[in-house]
């Protein structure tokens, strides 16, 4: 039923933009059907719908057969009660079916228009990992996705080995490409666009785009503070994750910080690192998706184990990963002043560890013990030992105050940021 609402939002935006007056049925028959189904390869596979009933594997329906299937659908919508076979996202009339859901004994006043709207809305599902899809109700996003439909049809018609029925995957690829300000060319929309890959069983298919790259593109193109989507899957077994808010400024923040501190070099590689630690389903379980869901893979060991990371500026790939970890920490702290504070603390500790040649081993071990702290209590206790042997009591007292007054949840992130900064300072010295 959510798809019907999305279809209505799109159709209103379409009619306004193109100065038209399509009803949902008219748009479906004249526009949607002609692009999605009136070809040898479909763009969408709707289980149990008239478009797929009676099809034999490897044999495409003829023009006449496709027209007949459209007529059957139109007739069923006009005469039958709405169910999953003729209205996308609606439940099966069999309450025991795995495609059943949202069952109610209320007599909902559903109209033909809403059934056609559900078909239109279903075409805007954005496929991500795990077979899940995202539906946005933002009119401009829907119009931008609509632009990509004709390109997908062109790819299917001109690439014989390309698998059909992947509109959801296509939408994800297209949106990430469409919203990439560095590479998208309005005059040549498919330039530098590489959505196709080799399938598991040979042949070609539309690759599944990472959810983080899709959200990054949206966040960088929309100033809204919050955008809500519907997350679901309509396959053999329907799955409903629900309505998930996306905190766009917080999603943008790590990229803005990376650009500020490290420039634009290798930003494409940086984007591929964010959001790799957890899957999309787990990210949705957080309740809202923001910077916390963008945690880079492999970072957790640095946070939990209290180890000092290795900094190797001569290895570009490792340096990019190292910097990405630092920036994600700073974004989680949501306080840029702590960047400079972490650098100052790292420099103070580095100076202390090398301040006395005779006691260098002892002092170095004291700093190592301090940096291994993963909570406020451990850090303060280890700092006391350093204060006893250091003349820089004012700087150390300031460090203690910063850690002591910091919110408990932020302490592990800040301590980890100090370890990263210490690795840099120590390498340079």
Topology:
Layout: H1 2-18, H2 24-36, H3 63-79, H4 112-122, E1 126-127, E2 133-136, H5 139-158, H6 167-178, E3 196-198, E4 204-206, H7 211-221, E5 227-233, E6 239-246, H8 248-262, H9 267-273, H10 280-284, H11 300-305, H12 316-333, H13 337-353, H14 360-371, H15 376-388, H16 393-405, H17 411-428
Helix pairs in contact: 1-4, 1-5, 2-4, 5-6, 6-7, 7-8, 8-12, 12-17, 13-14, 13-17, 14-15, 15-16
Fill in the keyword field for this structure.
single chain; 429 residues; 2 domains; 4-stranded antiparallel beta sheet; 52% helix; alpha+beta
Question: Taking strands numbered 1, 2, ... along the chain, how are they ordered across the largest sheet?
Answer: 1-2-5-6
Spans of 5+ residues with little confidence (pLDDT < 50)? none
Structural class from helices and strands? alpha+beta
Report the order of strands and helices: HHHHEEHHEEHEEHHHHHHHHHH
Number of strands: 6
Radius of gyration (CA) equals 27 Å
The shape is elongated
Per DSSP, the total helix count is: 17
List the quaternary state of the chains: single chain
Quote the average pLDDT.
Answer: 89
The N- to C-terminal Cα distance equals: 63 Å
Q: Beta fraction of the residues?
A: 5-15%
Helical residue percent band: 40-55%
Main sheet specs: 4 strands, antiparallel
Please indicate the count of domains.
2
